[in-house]
Here is the input.
Amino acid sequence: MTSNDDFRHMKQALRLAARVAPRAVAPNPRVGCVLVKNGRVLAQGAHARFGGPHAEAAALKRAGAAARGATAYVTLEPCAPFPGKKTPPCAAALAAAGVRRVVFPALDANPKVSGRGAALLRRAGADVARVPGFAAEAEALNRGYFSRLRRGRPWVLLKTALSLDGKAAAASGRSRWVTGVSARAAVHRLRAQLDAIAVGTGTVLADDPALTAHGAGANPLRVIFAGRRELPPAARVFDDAAPTVVYRIKKPADLRGALKDLAAQGVGTLLLEGGPTLHAAFLRAGLVDEACVFLSPKLLSGADDPNRAPRLKAPRLTRVGSDWRVEGVL
Here is the structure.
């Protein structure tokens, strides 16, 4: 049975997990833990970096002997032992510390762990409870982790930049730059948050992109979905800034095979950039999970250079039913 206190402390544990950068712990999940005893928070912790202490271990270390008889609020089922595990199992640590009750919202997606952590705690005499209503939030914190282990492919976020007249590039094929400096900086931050970034051959040939985070964080793995056209060896995607993998795509099934291979390498999140051809292939295959669209006030129809295209001055945005109306003078 859960209470208002359970909801309050679980929210705090989720906030702790959310403060951790997604790639700091990848391919592990982000997890937060709050230890409470007699209505008072004893200690809290989060899994802050890959290879470092898990959230439960960090909180237990801070609480010390006072953890005996406490309740642990953890954002994911505490892990259980399995062959090849690099860190001590958290379920066993909680049991050894004498934690009386363990509350979490979601079972671990890892088949080596799922359900086993809870079972270990019950065998040790701990009360194990699930907090209803927080499972979706807990899984959203680790969407790549759950997608990789449950579906065998990364979570795919489609990112595109469009002009007001629906163009991703000028009439010449140039797409640099459809959006402004601030939007591009936001994209760089997004790249730093995801494990990999992907484009097609067309984008490499047209723009010669670096596909890096440009100082916003660690560079993601670069993925090229290539067709029949050859990629120039001197393209910037093959420099030393980040590793690059190339997949030759001849049929829709090849996309699924490529994503399966990326998941096997530990890639949980993929930022799908590129152009409309690649986007259409992913959408037709049902492989897009989320979209992020940057809308520029420019009108690219007939323009050869995106930087010289006419733009709306002080555009006004109005909601019209499920659509949006944008207007302004040129």
